[in-house]
Amino acid sequence: MLAIIIPYYKRTFFEATLQSLAAQTCKDFKVYIGNDASTEDPADLLQHFQGQFDFVYRCFETNLGGVSLTQQWERCIALSANEPWLMILGDDDLLGEKVVEAFYKNLEEIEQIGCNVVRFATQIIDGEGRSISEVYEHSKLEKATDAFWRKFKGETRSSLSEYVFSRVAYSKYGFKDYPLAWYSDDMAWLEFADKNPIFSINSVLFYIRMSSASISGKIDNLENKRLASNVFYEDISNDFLSFFDKKQCLKLIAKLEQQFFKRKQRSLFFKIMKYHLKYTDLTNLVKFFRRIYYN
Length: 295
Fold this sequence. Notes:
CATH topology of the largest domain: Spore Coat Polysaccharide Biosynthesis Protein SpsA, Chain A
Number of domains: 2
Order of helices and strands: EHEHEHEEHEEHEHHEHHHH
Helix content: 40-55%
Oligomer: single chain
């Protein structure tokens, strides 16, 4: 069975999210809603949807998302039973009416291949529910590092909601606790895939809302996003450079160089030097030293 986890905080678009669950053509899922001590009580909305799909609701006494969004995800997952597949659904995102049906239609093949991560085609909507982007589709089977590289180059998009992942993979790796959980989902798919391909379902759509109420839509989180980016790219370099070719490694190492010239940390200098020696060549290491000299 599929467990759909909703870390709830804002009511603004929550009714539309619940309606998209009630409209599913396949009801073989259970929803677990964890209220992060929100001041916007959703109890009356949930009462309206009672009996339309199976759900469990828990209101936590303390706000955790303001301290660590990934820990809020994790305590909401802890509400679930032993469902083998998990989805973390934003309280403002929408499922196309056949998302769950399409998941089960492909499940036998997903399990035969050994995929731990499944994703759906997506389209971005605004606060009024209007489409504001193209439809983003993917290859049916794609290495997680290739998927990340496409996003790195701006050729696609990705966020937490449109993924389904195995409980086994989640239990093995958990989520990296970056500020605002920025890049935490990207790292999750790299780790959860566990060297197996990501399985994509393009026959149905997930609608991802972009508004001033969402983290992605806010402009006052720039410093925390920058900090998250710094740690994420250090982790990428530590754990995944061997999966990229030389040109890709140079671009990823360049992200660390940008940090180095801003932070002037000796430890980062030695890491960059090591990565050039291991994944690029001596010429690029010399160029790095030259950039240090001129800066």
